[in-house]
Amino acid sequence: xxxxxxxxxxxxxxxxxxxxxxxxxxxxxxxxxxxxxxxxxxxxxxxxxxxxxxxxxxxxxxxxxxxxxxxxxxxxxxxxxxxxxxxxxxxxxxxxxxxxxxxxxxxxxxxxxxxxxxxxxxxxxxxxxxxxxxxxxxxxxxxxxxxxxxxxxxxxxxxxxxxxxxxxxxxxxxxxxxxxxxxxxxxxxxxxxxxxxxxxxxxxxxxxxxxx
Length: 212
Hints:
Layout: H1 5-10, H2 15-31, H3 41-48, H4 52-58, H5 62-86, H6 94-111, H7 113-122, H8 127-153, H9 163-183, H10 191-207
Organism: Catenuloplanes atrovinosus
DNA-binding region: 40-59
Keywords: DNA-binding
């Protein structure tokens, strides 16, 4: 008997979905206790209450698990960027949208600091992490490029540097600043100072003013 659309919507997550989510949750908890290099597959499987072969059904290595954790965090980050910046609500000025965007982004990185620190440091150690990191940042660069092009075409932003180069520079500048914040590197800035500076950098680079 074929399930109706209503029945399909009512169906909850499968056992496989729950097992996958449990592995991600355990992975992040273990990262809060020690670096990935000191975590074993057996330890992850035991804490997640799955067998070692079951772990490998979902991930081919602990670095693949880290890549999945990274993808989950940055997917949320992109949703925030899409909601506040790429499709900016009409009632928000670019300045308001930019500051709210960076405020939420920094809070997200702080909530998942262990994942973001480990991923940033492991990006050259394993191709799965490097590929995930690069692809996810490219997604932000693509979106920023589209937004800058749209603002220039509308006459809101003046002509300037090559769009792709500008979007790439701003995106990587932001990533390094967020990493420094959660890794405790560089000057001891407050979150408000960091958000204000990031917003200024983006707005001045795109609009040639901090209050477009």
